[in-house]
C-alpha cells in the first residue's frame, strides 16, 4: 500500500523583540532563530488514529482540527518529530510544533500550507507566536488576531541562557494581572515598538536590540528574572548591544552583531565565562533566521511494502 508523506519544519524564537499591548490589545513581535521543530507525517487514509508521543497534545489537536475542517474523518497516520525545541523556555516550541505538523499534513494531502491558514489553526489552540510567517511579523496573539509584516530578519547572534523552570503560555496569558501590567507599560512598549520598526526598516540591529531591552525590562514586573541586570551589564561590557527575552518564558539572551570574530568569541571564552559567572542550566548560541515554514518538497508517495 502507498502512503502519502509530508515533511515540514518551523523555526523557534529567542523570545520576542517586543511584547505588550496597543490600546489594550496584546501583541508580540517574534525573534526567529536557527532552531527548529521538524515533523514528518505519513498518512494512512483509513487509519483513523494518529501515532505520536502521548504528551504532544497540541499537535494532536491541530491534526484533528484539520481532519474536521477538510472532512477527512477516517484519516490517520504516523507523526515523527525529527527536530524538537526545548519546551517551556519561551522558544515558541508549541507554535513551531503545531505549524510544522499542520504544514506536513497539508503537504501530504498535496495542499499548499499558507502561513495565514497555519496561524489561524494555531490560534484556535492557544495564544501563539508568528513564526509561521517569513520575516518579522507583529501579531495580536490573544484577541483580534490581526498581523503585520514588519520586514526581513536582521543578521544577529544571541547568547541565550536560563536558570530552569518552565512557563505555560496559555496560563501566562490568562493571568488576572496581565492587563494591568500591559496598561502600566504601554507607553514604554510603544517606544520599543517604534524603535523596532526603525531598526527593521533600516537593517539596524542596535536599534532592534535597544527595543528588545526596553521590552524585556518592562516584562520583569510580571516575569522576574533575578539575574537580568548583572547579565545585561555583562553583555554591554562584552560587545553586546542589548538583550531579548521570552516574555512568557524563562529564556534571556544577549544580542550581538553577526560577525565572524564575535561568533568565535561567543562560542569560546564568552560562553565559558557566562557559564562560570551566571551558572545557567541552559546555554546556547543562536543565529537569527529569516522565519517561516520550510518544506523539503516531499510531495511524494512512499511505498510501505
TrEMBL record:
Pfam families: GHMP_kinases_N
GO molecular function ontology, one term from the record: kinase activity
Residue span(s) of domain GHMP kinase N-terminal: 59-126
Alphabetical keyword list: ATP-binding, Kinase, Nucleotide-binding, Transferase
InterPro entries cross-referenced by the UniProt entry: GHMP_kinase_N_dom, Ribosomal_Su5_D2-typ_SF, Ribsml_uS5_D2-typ_fold_subgr
EC number per UniProt: 2.7.1.177
Name of the molecule in the record: L-threonine kinase
The organism of origin for this protein: Desulfosporosinus acididurans
